[in-house]
Amino acid sequence: MRIETLAHAGEAAEADFTGKSVLVMDVFRATSCIVTGLACGCAGFLPVLTLEEARGVADGEWLLAGERKGKRPDGFHLGNSPLDYLASDELLGKRIVLTTTNGTRAIHYALGNAHTVLIGAFLNAAAAARALFMPERDVCLVCSGTRDRFSLEDGLCAGLVAEELLRLAGGNLVLCDLTQAMLASWRQARDNLQPVLAGSANGKRLARMGLFRDVEFCGTLNRYSLVPVWQNGLLLPLANAEPLQSSQNSLF
To answer: What's the fold here for domain 2-239?
Structure first.
């Protein structure tokens, strides 16, 4: 089993995921929203690339969620804060159309030919590693990054997932160079994670926007045991999905 890590969504656009299990991470904040939303009772998430696509899909049974430049678009029910999902009482059984600057783009690229596409964040890292762990199948950890540049929070999350996979495998894994670097970075940062995240470029940006509570929440480790998986045209809780070997990766 080999673990490869990609630094940002732009790398995912050119990657060959054939036969691999892929975990997409956008800690600040798309994948944290997906995990939290499903944990709060949403029926599923449909990631799309543009505002126009999102508005075209939405009807009375769908809620619109997402951001542009970190802010909720006009007419959207939810922004890109996981705290929006915790605060809402309208989510139970609702399907969400989600569009964001980075995370939904990374998910879209992964859906082309991967065997399995899962969603990860600090909030569900241990559960995500358990879901990924199939010794006969290689893994790719996709950091969404920010506008095709590396983001520290995604890299540290990849390092945490790699550490969990190593533990599950008894150390018998092959790690690419970037995975090794992220594992080392995670081990250096884990005892001081919240200040490290607050000092990251995106942590500072969110704080300037008055969203520091998002930084704190998204840095919470293993709050949820739920793992979103792409099946039947939606991101669903793994417990509600069909067996992974029958994964269907077409967007529509």
So the answer is: putative 2-phosphosulfolactate phosphatase (3.90.1560)
